[in-house]
Known about the structure:
Mean pLDDT: 91
Number of strands: 17
Helix content: 25-40%
Low-confidence stretches: none
Number of domains: 3
Structural class: alpha/beta
Shape: globular
Amino acid sequence: xxxxxxxxxxxxxQSPNYNYFFRKKDGVFLEWGATKDxxxxxxxxxxxxxxxISKVVDENFIVDKNKYNVVDKGCNGCEFCYKLxxxxxxxxxxxxxxxxxxxxxxxxxxxxxxxxxGINQISTCPDFWNIxxxxxxxxxVVPNYTTRGEDLTERDYKNTAKHCGAVAISYSDRDTxxxxxxxxxxxxxxxxxxxxxxxHETLNKCYKVMDNCRSDKRLRNLNALxxxxxxxxxxxxxxxxxxxxxxxxxxxxxxxxKIPLGFDxxxxxxxxxxxxxxxxxxxxSQYVTSCCAARSSSxxxxxxxxxxxxxxxxxxxxxxxxxxxxxxxxxxxxxxxxQTVKFREKNIRCSxxxxxxxxxFDKTQ
Length: 365
């Protein structure tokens, strides 16, 4: 029998083969299988959801205005964006009712712990703060989001501290990013991170950002510098780093400076190979989560379509995805759909073999 237990500061799952404990104030998440020493291969439901609530579209895109808001504003663009968000003249965003419908289906058993809200800009999402508040108060899920920080107001900073578990600032330029970090921390968001995409072309600047984490007062209380692996989904001209020696050098430099460093799960294989042989390898490896797509996490795009992760959206494996809005039972119709199960089994096998399950991630050297 599976039970979800929840208090004001925690959420836990108890079952014979899968268990977790989640602490709401700082995102600490522990999971185990039948025993505390057993790592589960997957969860019986997603405990983390990546949910896109806004999207830049072409001016001729037809929108269902019962489900979405429309703002005649595109995006300033970001050279790192794998969604090509700078291609379009208007932004569509979910209405609160659409979000609530999706979350009610996704979280019927109340087992989801966190939701990463995907947005273009807060200023282009009229229902953004209603969605954030409902996510936490109505659906009992801690919301987080990522921003470049260019359009934020004092209200946004205060609401983030009050309602969100964490926030990440996508690195754009030094002053925009560092000033945004400082403001979030000043207003009380302790779990404030910088997301920095690493590739061969951005590597040198990454070291400068590391130096700044030690020397720039605006970053004094930064929670972590999180490095995101570049995966070439679009026609970007960046090059994926596959040499673990480069990762080892990054990790050692962060240790030398004594700065908090993190990686996305796409980097897990490179990270683990980079620290192999270190005296505390076994301890460090316990804090590493490899690809959790279709194992414990889900990606849902703005149209309510499920994909194992956002990098698979529109690809041949998934096409248009699986429609959550039309599903009667998310666990049966989506989470345990044959397509999801097939991907999950491959992901589990690759994780056991310490190989890479993602076709967009170059083979590790």
